[in-house]
């Protein structure tokens, strides 16, 4: 047995340690014999596909779920037979979930410091003290915000900072961040990663959950990989590559090949000329042809989503024309666009793409009710048939059609959202950030579906700020900046680093 050398510094003790953790739900194993540890001040990545057990593990650590058997949690020198949410909060364990759990109508100061005034009995709120608390913690993060402004007036990137600031008010020792960069631009992501490094230098451990593998490698010291509720291993981040992480997470490899093909002789499905909405986009012109996947990329704020909403009839252009199959169209609403054969998958799946409490079946048929109606009523037979068809065609993994769509993994929810629009038999499908919050394995499956739909003749607009997505999966790529199309690229004649240099310049 090895012994420490005289005078040698003792080995550092983990801040957080769990061993042999198992969790089952109604006979379904969510975690099986998982061990996990985080060192003080470490940036640790927790990686795995949706459904691998990441969220379950975090909820065990925070006391939301109780593990099976006699598993114990050791945190900051204390051993807990059973962690509870109250004990986790008191110990300094914080979680920033992907939805942030903030209050849009409340001010920045109130969002950051409200836990200081929450108690068991009513008391007067000291707004001055709340503002001072918020100011100090934001200064600690090297940033400043208007403390009196309602949170709803800030971008998602600024809200992330508010969520981190709130976690620090109670002297956090470890912060779990769930998909913190999913909706951020490259510049905003860089700022957030700088904040993570600041927290690490102060001795605060950060556990980073992200499907953006390049940033995981950049920011993490180590990573723990889960697959199907089991521990795959713990690895130094500096030894990892995106392809290696993908292989560990999924148990299989994915080939990154450019799928671009020429569609120059195919008939135009959509032709846009001089389309303008002041303050959002200006003089936008392009064509999408039958069977073509047109990629549109650019930093957040470039006007991509605003353009998509205009094509879908949610906003009206100030100038310019939209033609479908050569005929000019003017949409008064999205209903007109749907009737004309345009479908739009929103970037916000949770609040706009799907109705989370409603069933899988209801979500899937909501945009095509006419197909399941008979005699003015919904035919359950037709409804079940339509759902079964698209569940089968897109390979959606479900239990029962009547289950709430919220019970599905992110990748399967996204497939339901796509199926909802394919059931309308569109001529043009607009996919706005179709893989936000979706793991790498599910992403590959979604893009296989996109390629198949294009091969069947569907015209597709693929909007994404993740350049590899449009580079490998689009036939042409348009670069949008400050509301204008500033470049067009053929993935077959440009390398990905060249495209990245052009977009991020």
TrEMBL record:
Domain ABC transporter: 16-253, 258-505
Membrane-spanning intervals of the chain: none
Gene3D superfamilies the record matches: P-loop containing nucleotide triphosphate hydrolases
Gene Ontology MF terms: ATP binding; ATP hydrolysis activity
Keywords noted in UniProt: ATP-binding, Cell membrane, Membrane, Nucleotide-binding, Plasmid, Repeat, Sugar transport, Translocase, Transport
One protein family per Pfam: ABC_tran
InterPro entries assigned: AAA+_ATPase, ABC_carbohydrate_import_ATPase, ABC_transporter-like_ATP-bd, ABC_transporter-like_CS, P-loop_NTPase
Protein's UniProt keywords contain Transmembrane helix: no
Family classification: Belongs to the ABC transporter superfamily.
Stated name of the protein: Lipase
């Amino acid at each position: 047995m090895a012994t420490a050398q005289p005078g040698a510094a003792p080995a550092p003790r983990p801040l957080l340690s769990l061993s042999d953790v198992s969790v089952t739900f109604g006979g379904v194993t969510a975690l099986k014999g998982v061990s996990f540890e985080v060192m003080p001040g470490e940036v640790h990545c927790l990686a795995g596909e949706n459904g691998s057990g990441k969220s379950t593990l975090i909820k065990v650590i925070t006391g939301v779920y109780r593990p099976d058997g006699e598993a114990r949690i050791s945190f900051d020198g204390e051993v807990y037979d059973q962690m509870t949410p109250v004990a986790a909060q008191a110990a300094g364990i914080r979680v920033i979930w992907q939805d942030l759990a903030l209050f849009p109508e409340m001010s920045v100061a109130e969002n950051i410091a409200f836990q200081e005034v929450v108690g068991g009995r009513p008391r007067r709120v000291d707004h001055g003290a709340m503002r001072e608390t918020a100011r100090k913690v934001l200064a600690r993060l090297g940033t400043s915000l208007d403390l009196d402004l309602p949170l709803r007036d800030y971008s998602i990137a600024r809200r992330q900072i508010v969520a981190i600031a709130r976690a620090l008010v109670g002297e956090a020792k470890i912060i779990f961040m769930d998909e913190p960069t999913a909706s951020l631009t490259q510049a905003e992501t860089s700022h957030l990663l700088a904040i993570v490094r600041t927290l690490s230098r102060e001795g605060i451990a950060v556990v980073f959950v992200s499907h953006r593998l390049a940033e995981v490698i950049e920011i993490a010291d180590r990573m723990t990989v889960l697959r199907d509720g089991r521990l795959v291993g713990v690895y130094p981040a500096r030894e990892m590559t995106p392809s290696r992480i993908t292989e560990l997470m999924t148990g299989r490899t994915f080939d990154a090949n450019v799928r671009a093909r020429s569609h120059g002789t195919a008939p135009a499905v959509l032709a846009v000329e001089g389309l303008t909405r002041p303050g959002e986009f200006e003089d936008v012109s392009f064509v999408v042809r039958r069977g073509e996947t047109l990629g549109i990329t650019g930093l957040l704020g470039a006007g991509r989503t605003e353009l998509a909403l205009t094509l879908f009839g949610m906003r009206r252009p100030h100038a310019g024309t939209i033609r479908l199959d050569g005929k000019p169209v003017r949409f008064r609403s999205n209903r007109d666009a749907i009737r004309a054969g345009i479908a739009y998958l929103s970037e916000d799946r949770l609040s706009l793409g799907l109705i989370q409490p409603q069933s899988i079946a209801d979500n899937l048929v909501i945009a095509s009710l006419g197909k399941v109606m008979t005699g003015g009523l919904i035919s359950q037979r037709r409804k079940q048939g339509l759902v079964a068809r698209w569940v089968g065609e897109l390979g959606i993994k479900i239990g029962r059609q009547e289950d709430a769509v919220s019970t599905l993994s992110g990748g399967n929810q996204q497939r339901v959202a796509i199926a909802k629009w394919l059931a309308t038999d569109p001529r043009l499908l607009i996919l706005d950030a179709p893989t936000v919050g979706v793991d790498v394995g599910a992403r590959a499956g979604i893009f296989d579906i996109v390629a198949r739909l294009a091969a069947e003749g569907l015209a597709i607009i693929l909007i994404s700020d993740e350049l590899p997505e449009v580079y490998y999966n689009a036939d042409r790529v348009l670069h949008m900046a400050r509301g204008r199309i500033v470049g067009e690229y053929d993935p077959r004649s440009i390398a990905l680093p060249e495209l990245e240099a052009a977009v991020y310049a």
